[in-house]
Specification:
There is one protein chain. By secondary structure, this protein is α+β, with helices and mostly antiparallel strands. 39% of the residues lie in helices and 22% in strands. It folds into 3 domains: 242 residues, 2-Layer Sandwich (BirA Bifunctional Protein, domain 2), CATH 3.30.930.10; 190 residues; 149 residues, Threonyl-trna Synthetase, Chain A, domain 2 (Threonyl-tRNA Synthetase, Chain A, domain 2, 2-Layer Sandwich), CATH 3.30.980. The protein contains 19 helices and 19 strands. Helix 3 crosses helix 4 and helix 7 packs antiparallel against helix 10. The longest helix has 35 residues. About 2% of the residues have low confidence.
Length: 594
């Protein structure tokens, strides 16, 4: 079974169960305050998991692009990826555990679908704790479906509880594994063990709890189901492959790397790891660069992660003697492989190749000098029988040669040397804002409080005012809204003048003074586009979306939330305008009493 066949089969299966197939969301999250990228299918749906009506109904399914970099150092093994596709289906206050588990079992074991032997299926459920009881209901459903007691494992929260890092919807899950038939690694071998006996294939999360800001867990006002099946891992199992890198998703790019480097992928373990890191990191980079928010390599936020992925790929490319200029050819290969599924890749091909090539060239200019400097430092440390690289030196490598801290740590780790992170942070003191972005980025809406809702509505006024003053080239590139202030990133090539800022401020405050009503309509994406609504028009034309109109002033596709009338906003004031990254400006603004 190919990835194309799996995507179509999965969506058709759930459409036949009454689900509406919706488009996957952007890799850049809009409503999740805790992450840089969309890391799971649930992130774009958080407002609807909390109870807001979804325009497409209460049963949904899709294929979501995801980026996870928490285990970036594990990329290179058989299964870890930074970019992956997640198939998912959701119940928003509709069906619950019995239906969700039964459908998972049917799709996994029916000959009409994946056809796994039911006897090879092993599952886990939440064992309970002092706050939430054991998930006996899920275990009971599995038993009814024929899964014996010895193949049902009750595990703690670190294994079978899912939710956002901060406050938000959460709940116990039941995970499905295929027993590969390998011998157990020991008496404690169980699903989730890294020995390879159990291969995770699906996860059903039952979100009927909510975590408050103070960390307490309470009931959610509706019972939700949120499931996830990884495309890459599933087709690897279906094709009998031992790694995801042996599937058709990676074959074309691996062929390009072999041609460029003159090495075969499986010559030895070191070369094999390099092939996997390069193909994974370049795939992630291509998809990030394709996002309409215009993310570019930089030293903060998503741009920092993008830069780290590209530069890590370059370092591994050097290990296998790849020729300078490889980034463009790999990007072209990846775009050709995925454009039939994600057409937006082809539309921005030139931009993707240009940005990757520019970053490769820029890094090449500093890499030689930086590596030479680090080599000298490592020799000196070794000669003095030391085991720690000072934070001051690590920062100099970052500041002078563009080495991300993780990059230096990885090279040092290969030589048995650690890096003084505390010393690095101290040396980084003059770059506090950048440090904050790299370590604890907050994006999207911090919460759905009244203050945050007011500021979110104000971003719509700001967006329209910027387009009126600067031109239609202005597009939102990101936002971060807390109860205290809004931060709005937008495409524009130059610093705004004091006069332009005053014009924008005046336009927004005039719209507030006019007491404009805010209304919402549900329509197809095509109708929204034809009506003149502003949006990052990516998705299925027939898909239902919400369009918010602020009187006769603006019309924008958005998931909410909003106030009912602009008179609720008070006075709008721009506090700062600055550069965010190349071609992107940033405005910080507040609302005060009228």
């Amino acid at each position: 079974m190919t990835a194309d066949e799996l995507r179509k089969m999965y969506l058709k299966f759930f459409e036949d169960k009454g689900h509406v197939s919706i488009s996957g969301a952007s890799l850049i999250p809009e409503n999740d305050p805790t992450v840089l990228f969309t890391t799971a299918g649930m992130h774009p749906l958080v407002p609807y998991l909390l109870g807001e009506p979804h325009p497409s109904g209460v049963r949904l399914c899709n294929c979501q692009k995801c980026i996870r970099t928490g285990d970036i150092d594990d990329v290179g093994d058989a299964s870890h990826l930074t970019f992956f596709e997640m198939l998912g289906n959701w119940s928003l206050g509709d069906y619950f555990k019995e239906e969700a588990i039964a459908w998972s079992f049917e799709f996994l074991t029916s000959k009409a679908y994946l056809g796994f032997n039911p006897d090879s299926l092993v599952v886990t459920v939440f064992q309970g704790n002092s706050v939430v009881p054991k998930d006996e209901e899920s275990a009971s459903v599995w038993k009814k479906l024929g899964i014996s007691d010895e193949r049902i494992f009750a595990l703690p929260a670190e294994d079978n509880w899912w939710g956002l890092p901060g406050a938000g919807p959460c709940g116990p899950d039941t995970e499905m594994f295929i027993d590969t038939g390998k011998r157990p690694c020991g008496s404690n071998c169980r699903p989730g063990c890294s020995c390879g006996k159990y291969f995770e294939i699906w996860n059903d999360v039952f979100m009927h709890y909510e975590k408050a800001v103070d960390g307490t867990i309470g009931p959610l006002k509706q019972r939700n189901v949120d499931t996830g099946m990884g495309v890459e891992r599933t087709i690897a199992m279906m094709q009998g492959r031992s790694t995801v890198f042996e599937t058709e998703l990676f074959a074309p790019v691996i062929a390009v790397i072999e041609d460029n480097s003159g090495h075969g992928m499986n010559e030895n373990d070191e070369i094999r790891k390099a092939f996997r890191v390069i193909s994974d990191h370049m795939r992630s980079s291509v998809f990030i660069l394709a996002e309409p928010q215009g993310i570019t390599p930089s030293n903060l936020g998503q741009g920092y992660v993008l830069r780290r992925l590209i530069r890590r790929a370059i370092r591994f490319a050097k290990k296998i003697d790849m020729k300078v200029g490889f980034a463009g050819s790999i990007a072209d290969c990846l775009i050709d492989s995925y454009k039939h599924v994600y057409p937006e890749l082809a539309f921005v091909r030139r931009d993707i190749v240009q940005k990757l090539t520019a970053e490769e060239e820029q890094f090449e200019k500093t890499l030689h000098h930086g590596m030479a400097e680090l080599d000298k430092v490592l020799v000196n440390i070794s000669n003095h029988a030391q085991t720690v690289l000072s934070g001051r030196v690590a920062f100099r490598l970052y500041d002078t040669y563009g080495f991300p801290l993780e990059f230096t740590e990885e090279i040092c780790r290969e030589h048995g040397i650690s890096v003084d992170r505390e010393g690095f942070d101290k040396a980084f003191g003059t770059h506090k804002e950048v440090s904050k972005q790299n370590k604890a980025f907050k994006g999207g809406l911090a919460d759905n409080s009244e203050a945050t809702t007011r500021l979110h509505t104000a971003t719509h006024l700001l967006h329209k005012a910027l387009r009126m003053v600067l031109g239609d080239h202005v597009k939102q590139s990101g936002s971060n809204i807390t109860p205290e202030r809004l931060r709005f990133d937008f495409s524009h090539p130059a610093k705004m003048t004091a006069d332009e800022l005053k014009q924008v401020e005046d336009i927004v405050n005039d719209a507030i003074r006019r007491k404009l009503p805010i209304t919402v309509e549900t329509m197809t994406l095509e109708q929204a586009k034809d009506s003149g609504a502003t949006a990052l028009f990516v998705g299925k034309y027939a898909e239902q979306v919400k369009v918010y109109s602020i009187g006769d002033f603006s019309k924008e596709v958005c998931g909410g939330p909003h106030v009912r009338n602009t008179e609720e906003l008070g006075r709008f004031e721009i506090k700062k305008e600055e550069s965010s990254s190349a071609g992107v400006r940033r405005i910080r603004a507040v609302l005060s009493e009228a």
